[in-house]
Design a protein that fits this description.
This protein is mainly alpha-helical. The chain has one domain. Helix content is about 75%, strand content about 0%. It has a two-stranded antiparallel ribbon. The radius of gyration is 17 Å and the shape is globular.
């Protein structure tokens, strides 16, 4: 058990540094690594991806609050936009978690891997979004929020890979987009976490020390070390060539995605 918890601490530390250094969500690494660890520990194959996704989203609850507080102190969060997107996000994230619960791990694994490959391609080729004039309609806010929440919940991430480009497209600066995206990570994580708890409640294959589809030892280790190491990554970001590191990270995502596809 000690070695297992140490691995969760190590995972949280790596994710924390990368989040602070590159501004990327940890779910892209947490999900495939947890799926591998859970498989090694002999957890039921049928719910390995559900546990990895649920635990990843639950870990975002703590880290997103710390991130939002920091951005709010710099008055960088566009709260009006965040509030308008949140109803759709809450509904979409809940539905994503419920859908994931009825899908098999064998189906969810390649879905996550394909999404990870798309993110890696975007980072490698440096896709940029140009601002688009005009304020979004209420329907746009609702549908966009729903889509961001749904996909994020289904693949266990905080949504930044989708919400940041959307915010920039609708006229936000990059700094405000990142800050507002951090604020949106909390309703995504909250609704999705509740959905994974609800859908995994009293599941016949539920392992010991789990709360629905949330595996508590992994959650504790990841949150503890990621909060400690995130400031280190933020400090390193001012001393290192981050753009080159982003490409290295993208290659890491490709390796993780390939591994998941190979194990499908």
């Amino acid at each position: 058990m000690f070695i297992e918890f140490a691995l969760y601490l190590l995972l949280g530390g790596v994710v924390g540094v990368l989040a602070g250094l590159l501004g990327v969500g940890g779910g892209l690494i947490i999900v495939p690594v947890l799926a591998t660890l859970f498989s090694t520990l002999g957890m039921p194959t049928d719910i390995i991806m559900h546990l990895a996704l649920g635990t990843s989203l639950a870990s975002i609850l703590g880290t997103s609050l710390a991130s939002v507080y920091s951005h709010h102190k710099h008055a960088a969060v566009n709260w009006g936009t965040a509030i308008k997107l949140s109803p759709g996000i809450l509904l979409g994230a809940w539905l994503g978690a419920i859908l994931a619960s009825v899908l098999s791990s064998d189906f969810l694994r390649p879905v996550f891997a394909c999404f990870e490959l798309l993110v890696a391609m975007y980072m490698l080729w440096g896709g940029k979004v140009s601002p688009h004039k005009g304020s979004p309609s209420l329907v746009n806010f609702s549908l966009s929020g729903g889509a961001i929440g749904f996909v994020s919940s289904l693949v266990g991430i905080g949504g930044g890979t989708m919400s940041v480009p959307w915010l920039i497209w609708h006229g936000s600066t990059i700094h405000k987009a990142i800050a507002t995206s951090a604020a949106l990570g909390f309703p995504i994580a909250l609704s999705a976490t509740l959905g994974y708890i609800f859908s995994g409640w009293n599941h016949p294959l539920q392992p010991e020390h789990s709360f629905g589809f949330i595996y508590l030892p992994a959650l504790g280790g990841i949150i503890l070390s990621s909060i400690i190491f995130a400031p280190i990554g933020a400090t390193l970001a001012h001393r290192m060539r981050v753009e080159k590191l982003r490409k290295i990270f993208a290659l890491l995502l490709i390796v993780l995605a390939a591994y998941l596809l190979a194990s499908s």
